[in-house]
């Protein structure tokens, strides 16, 4: 395969685009442009429904409510999610941490705080907080899937797959969970198994473009780059298809760089993005 130049811009666009970012418990409830693991737990009040889909505008509205009353759980939740959606991850974690202190039993806040910790790379803390966000008697498949990804990021892959299996018992063949499971296999270089799992996810009518990108990446990692390009392009508009192919070339180029590292240096598997649902 011909080496491609690094393209940080295309990679950044990929990692932040809802159209092509790798799945983590995607397809959840809540604001349409701010899909989040707490979607099934958020308030359905008329006040919450009046908030616009634009995350920047949502941050303004919820931010005003939060500053007026920092103990307003709904405002803190909405503000934290909006901050995450606009890339203000550290601030989101700070807001949600304070909210969970004020409302220690609020499952929605705990779920959102755990997700914010995961955003910031605090995988163990995220896992611990998420464990408090649901119970064995009332498990939430979305949270189970997120916990799986935190374990994968800590290289606890077998344990992670147990969480994906538990989620799939609740929602069989859920494409977002299957996609996370496929990424888990990719991390341990079990590429045929990763491909098989991702093809199951991709075959589901509810799968979105992020599942397609994960499949394309795994196919490309096995040296079938022409096929990977075809999968990445799909039926997308030309500009999105071009961006997707650029992403694939960037990530596969990183794989080549790993193979050329000196002996003993740390290599990494190119991963679309665990822990990125939105």
What overall form do the CA principal axes indicate? Answer: globular
Strand count, sense and closure of the main sheet?
A: none
**Low-confidence blocks of residues:** 1-49, 264-278
Succession of helices and strands: HHHHHHHHHHHHHH
Query: What structural category arises from helix and sheet content?
Result: mainly alpha
% residues in beta strands:
under 5%
Our measurement of the CA-to-CA distance between the termini, rounded to an integer number of angstroms, reads: 31 Å
Whole-angstrom Rg: 19 Å
Q: Give the overall pLDDT as a whole number.
A: 79
The number of helices is 14
> Helicity level, as a percent range?
55-70%
The tally of strands reads 0
């Amino acid at each position: 395969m011909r080496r491609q130049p690094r393209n940080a811009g295309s990679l950044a666009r990929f990692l932040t685009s809802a159209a092509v970012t790798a799945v983590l418990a995607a397809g959840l409830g809540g604001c349409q442009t701010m899909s989040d693991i707490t979607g099934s737990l958020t308030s359905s009040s008329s006040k919450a429904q009046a908030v616009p889909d634009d995350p920047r505008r949502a941050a303004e509205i919820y931010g005003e409510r939060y500053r007026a009353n920092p103990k307003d759980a709904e405002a803190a939740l909405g503000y934290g999610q909006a901050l995450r959606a606009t890339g203000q991850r550290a601030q989101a974690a700070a807001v949600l941490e304070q909210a969970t202190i004020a409302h220690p039993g609020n499952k929605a806040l705990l779920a959102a705080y755990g997700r914010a910790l995961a955003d910031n790379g605090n995988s163990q803390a995220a896992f611990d907080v998420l464990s408090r966000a649901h119970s064995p008697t009332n498990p939430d498949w979305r949270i189970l899937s997120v916990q799986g990804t935190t374990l994968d990021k800590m290289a606890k892959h077998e344990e992670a797959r147990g969480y994906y299996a538990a989620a799939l018992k609740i929602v069989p063949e859920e494409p977002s969970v299957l996609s996370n499971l496929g990424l888990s296999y990719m991390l341990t270089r079990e590429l045929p198994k990763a491909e098989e799992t991702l093809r199951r996810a991709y075959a589901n009518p509810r799968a979105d473009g992020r599942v397609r990108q994960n499949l394309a990446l795994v196919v490309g990692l096995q040296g079938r780059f022409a096929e990977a390009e075809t999968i990445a392009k799909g039926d997308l508009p030309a500009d999105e298809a071009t961006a997707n192919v650029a992403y694939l070339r960037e990530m596969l180029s990183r794989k080549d760089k790993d193979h050329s590292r000196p002996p003993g240096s740390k290599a990494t598997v190119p991963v679309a993005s665990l822990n990125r649902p939105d």
